[in-house]
Amino acid sequence: MSVQERKERERAGRERLIVATARELAEQQGWDAVTTRRLAERIEYSQPVLYSHFRGKREIIGAVALEGAAEMAGALRAATVAATSGADGPRARVVALARAYLDFAADNPAVYDAMFQLDGGLAFAQEDTPEPLKDAFAALLETLGEVAGDGVHPALFTELFWASLHGLATLTRAGRLPPEDSERRVELLVDRLAVV
Questions:
Q1: What is the predicted pLDDT for the residue at 3?
Q2: Residue 39: its pLDDT value, please?
Q3: Rounded to 10 degrees, what is the CA torsion of 151, 153, 158, 161?
Q4: Buried-state track 65-95, b at ≥16 Cβ within 10 A, e below 16
Q5: Which residues, 6+ apart, have CB-to-CB distance to 164 below 8 Å?
Q6: pLDDT of residue 86
Q7: What is the pLDDT of residue 165?
Q8: Which residues of the chain have a pLDDT value below 70?
Q9: Which letter, b or e, does each residue of 20-35 get, where b requires 16 or more Cβ atoms within 10 Å of its Cβ?
């Protein structure tokens, strides 16, 4: 291995450490607790080293969001594949997708905030949208596109369904919706919106 390859590997390792530490701190104490000074202390590097990887907190939030988008896409696909073996067909896949989405949001609140609530400097629904964000939307579209209904644009239907899931996730987390009815909400959402 060349010196250059070793330096690149070390740099990538430091970058992963910064993102993992920011994510851990945000999940424990919220995003307000994530500062470059605290991150530098936790990873035991100087602030200039941290700034050599990220220009500031906004870019770190963006990196966490991209990592989270990749994880969410994987979770959505895994849930819909697992539901494919059942006899219920498309409905079972849509229900599994909705549950997986809401579970991801509940299990990873700081990551979810980085993805959809905070400014991470990422473009959504544009040509320069980063690939992990496009892939997370594609994971939704793969299942939801098949239940959009005749004459309904699959991407628009996916946006509407996604917005509904996002509303359920954020309102439940904020205590505005009683959690004991979450399963009934998913069933109602699928039954009223999806053509299954």
A1: 86
A2: 94
A3: -40
A4: bbbbbbbbbebbbebbeebeeeeeebbbbbb
A5: 189, 193
A6: 62
A7: 98
A8: 85-87
A9: ebbbebbbeeebeebe
